[in-house]
C-alpha cells in the first residue's frame, strides 16, 4: 500500500534534501506538489487542506529554514503531521476488559471483507490473547453467508454458532450471547449483514443489533481499495452506531492509501487493525507512526522484525546460518530460505518495510518479481532428486529437461535458478575467504562478481 504516494513524495523530498538552503518559496512549491500527491492518492480534500496548513505553519518557521539540514527538517514536519492525521503515536488496541462473553460487533458493506475479517479476528484472539471465541453470522440476506463463516471458523480452529434456518438477526445475536454464557466463551464475534450500499434497512438492522447486544467493540470493516467510498461509508456508519474502531481490509492491495489517511480525521474513530493479505493470519495492529514512516520511504524496521519473529523458525534459521558460515549451502537450504521468505509475505511488502528502497521496489515491480516467482523456484527445486539438490553441478541438459517438465517450468527458468544459486554460493565463498575484517575493510562490493556494479541493478 501507499506505493504511488510514497514514490511521489520521495521525489519531492529528494529535491528538497539536495538544496543547501531553503526559502519560503521553496517550501511553498514543495507543499503544492505534496497537496497534488495526496489528492491523487484519494485523500479527502478537508484532510489534505488541514494537513498542508499544519505543515506550512511549522515548516516555514525560522528554526526549520535556518537549520543545518532544512530539507530533512521539512520531512520530519510532514512525518509528524501524517502521524497526527493517522491517529497519533502508538497503536490503539481492542477493548477486551468487559466481563465474558464479551461481544464484538462487525459492521460494514457487502464485499468489504467483513466475514473474512471476522475469522481473522477470531484466530488472532485465540492465538495471541488465548481467548475462547465463538463466531456467529447474523447475515440472513446473502445466500450461504452463514455457511461461509462456518467454513472460515473451521479453518481458524474456532467454533461457529450452529445455523438455524429462518432465524432473524436479533434472534441469532441473542442465541449467540446465550451460548457464550452457557458454554464459557470469552468473546462472541457477531458478523452482521451488509448491503451493496448504505440504505435505511441496513442501518436500522445494525442499530437494533447494537442496542440489543451492547458490544464492547463495534468495528467497522471498510475496503481500503474503495478510496473515497470507504470514507463516505465510515461517516454513514459512524452517524448510526457508536463505531469504536475501524478495520481496513485489503490494505496490501491499494497503491494509493487515501482511505487510511482520511479515516481518522473524517470519522473520529481510530484505525485499530488492518488486513494485509488473504491468509487468516494476515491481520495486524495499525501503528500510525510506522505507516507514516513507510509513506515517506523511512521503512518500518520494527514491523519487519516482528513479522520475522512470528513467521521464521528460529532453529531452522540458526541451522541455515551455521551452514552458510561454513560454506556448506545447497539447493535444499536455498529452498528452505525461499519458504521462510514466502511465509513473511510478498517481496514488495517486505521491501516496503525497509528504508530507502522505493527505486528497488519499482525495479522489482517492472520485473514482476514477487512471491509467485519464489514459489516457482521452490517447485523447480522440489522436482530435483536429493542428489541433484545437494550437488547441482551434476545437473546437465537431460536432467534440466526432466526437472522443467516435472515442475511445469521451462529449461531457461531452470538455468536462471541454477545461475542465481551459483552467484549466491560464489558470494558466500568470497565472504568466507575475506573474513570479518576483510569485509569491513573492502565493503560489500568485494563480494560482487566483476562488472556487477555496472549492471544497473
Q: Number of helical segments?
A: 21
Number of strands: 8
Secondary-structure class: alpha/beta
Percent of residues in helices comes to 55-70%
- What characteristic shape results from the CA principal axes? flat
Low-pLDDT segments, ≥5 res: 442-457
Overview features:
Four Helix Bundle (Hemerythrin (Met), subunit A), single chain, alpha/beta, disordered C terminus, Rossmann fold, 3 domains, 434 Repressor (Amino-terminal Domain), eight-stranded mixed β-sheet, 21 helices, 457 residues
Task: Summarize the SSE layout with pairings.
Blueprint: H1 3-17, H2 24-40, H3 45-59, H4 62-65, H5 70-86, E1 102-107, H6 114-128, E2 133-137, H7 145-156, E3 159-160, H8 169-182, E4 187-191, H9 200-213, E5 217-223, H10 228-240, E6 245-249, H11 258-267, E7 271-275, E8 283-285, H12 288-295, H13 301-311, H14 314-325, H15 331-343, H16 347-351, H17 358-367, H18 371-382, H19 386-390, H20 397-407, H21 411-442
Parallel strand pairs: 1-4, 1-5, 2-3, 2-4, 5-6, 6-7
Antiparallel strand pairs: 7-8
Helix pairs in contact: 1-2, 1-5, 2-3, 3-5, 5-12, 6-7, 8-9, 10-11, 15-18, 18-20, 20-21
Concise summary:
It is built from 21 helices and eight strands. The protein has three domains: 84 residues, SRP54, nucleotide-binding domain (Four Helix Bundle (Hemerythrin (Met), subunit A), Up-down Bundle), CATH 1.20.120; 197 residues, Rossmann fold (3-Layer(aba) Sandwich), CATH 3.40.50.300; 151 residues, Signal recognition particle, SRP54 subunit, M-domain (434 Repressor (Amino-terminal Domain), Orthogonal Bundle), CATH 1.10.260. 58% of the residues lie in helices and 8% in strands.
Amino acid at each position: 500500500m501507499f506505493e504511488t504516494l510514497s514514490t511521489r513524495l520521495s521525489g519531492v523530498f529528494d529535491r528538497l534534501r539536495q538544496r543547501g538552503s531553503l526559502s519560503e518559496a521553496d517550501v511553498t512549491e514543495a507543499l503544492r506538489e505534496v497537496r497534488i500527491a495526496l489528492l491523487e492518492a484519494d485523500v479527502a480534500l478537508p484532510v489534505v487542506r488541514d494537513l498542508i496548513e499544519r505543515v506550512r505553519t511549522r515548516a516555514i518557521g525560522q528554526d526549520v529554514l535556518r537549520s543545518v539540514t532544512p530539507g530533512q527538517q521539512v520531512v520530519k514536519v510532514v512525518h509528524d503531521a501524517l502521524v497526527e492525521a493517522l491517529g497519533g503515536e502508538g497503536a490503539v488496541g481492542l477493548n477486551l476488559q468487559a466481563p465474558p462473553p464479551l461481544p464484538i460487533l462487525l459492521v460494514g458493506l457487502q464485499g468489504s471483507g467483513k466475514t473474512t475479517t471476522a475469522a481473522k479476528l477470531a484466530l488472532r484472539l485465540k492465538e495471541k490473547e488465548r481467548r475462547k471465541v465463538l463466531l456467529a453470522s447474523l447475515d440472513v440476506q446473502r445466500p450461504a453467508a452463514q455457511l461461509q463463516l462456518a467454513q472460515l471458523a473451521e479453518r481458524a480452529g474456532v467454533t461457529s454458532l450452529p445455523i438455524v434456518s429462518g432465524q432473524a438477526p436479533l434472534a441469532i445475536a441473542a442465541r449467540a450471547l446465550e451460548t457464550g454464557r452457557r458454554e464459557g466463551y470469552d468473546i462472541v464475534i457477531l458478523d452482521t449483514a451488509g448491503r451493496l450500499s448504505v440504505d435505511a434497512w441496513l442501518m436500522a438492522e445494525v442499530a437494533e443489533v447494537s442496542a440489543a447486544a451492547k458490544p464492547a467493540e463495534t468495528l467497522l470493516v471498510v475496503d481500503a481499495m474503495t478510496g473515497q467510498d470507504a470514507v463516505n461509508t465510515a461517516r454513514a456508519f459512524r452517524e448510526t452506531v457508536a463505531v469504536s474502531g475501524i478495520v481496513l481490509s485489503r490494505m496490501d492491495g491499494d497503491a494509493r492509501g487515501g482511505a487510511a489517511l482520511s479515516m481518522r480525521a473524517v470519522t473520529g474513530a481510530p484505525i485499530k487493525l488492518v488486513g494485509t493479505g488473504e491468509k487468516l493470519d494476515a491481520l495486524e495492529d495499525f501503528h500510525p507512526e510506522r505507516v507514516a514512516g513507510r509513506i515517506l520511504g523511512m521503512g518500518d524496521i520494527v514491523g519487519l522484525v516482528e513479522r520475522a519473529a512470528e513467521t521464521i523458525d528460529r532453529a531452522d534459521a540458526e541451522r541455515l546460518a551455521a551452514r552458510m558460515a561454513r560454506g556448506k549451502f545447497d539447493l535444499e537450504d536455498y529452498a528452505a530460505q525461499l519458504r521462510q521468505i514466502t511465509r513473511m509475505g510478498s517481496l514488495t511488502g517486505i521491501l516496503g518495510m525497509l528504508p530507502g528502497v522505493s527505486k528497488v521496489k519499482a525495479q522489482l515491480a517492472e520485473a514482476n518479481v514477487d512471491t509467485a516467482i519464489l514459489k516457482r523456484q521452490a517447485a523447480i527445486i522440489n522436482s530435483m532428486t536429493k542428489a541433484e539438490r545437494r550437488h547441482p553441478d551434476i545437473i546437465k541438459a537431460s536432467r534440466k529437461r526432466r526437472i522443467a517438465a516435472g515442475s511445469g517450468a521451462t529449461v531457461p527458468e531452470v538455468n536462471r535458478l541454477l545461475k542465481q544459486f551459483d552467484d549466491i554460493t560464489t558470494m558466500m565463498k568470497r565472504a568466507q575467504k575475506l573474513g570479518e575484517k576483510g569485509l569491513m575493510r573492502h565493503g560489500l562490493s568485494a563480494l560482487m562478481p566483476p562488472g556487477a556494479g555496472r549492471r544497473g541493478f
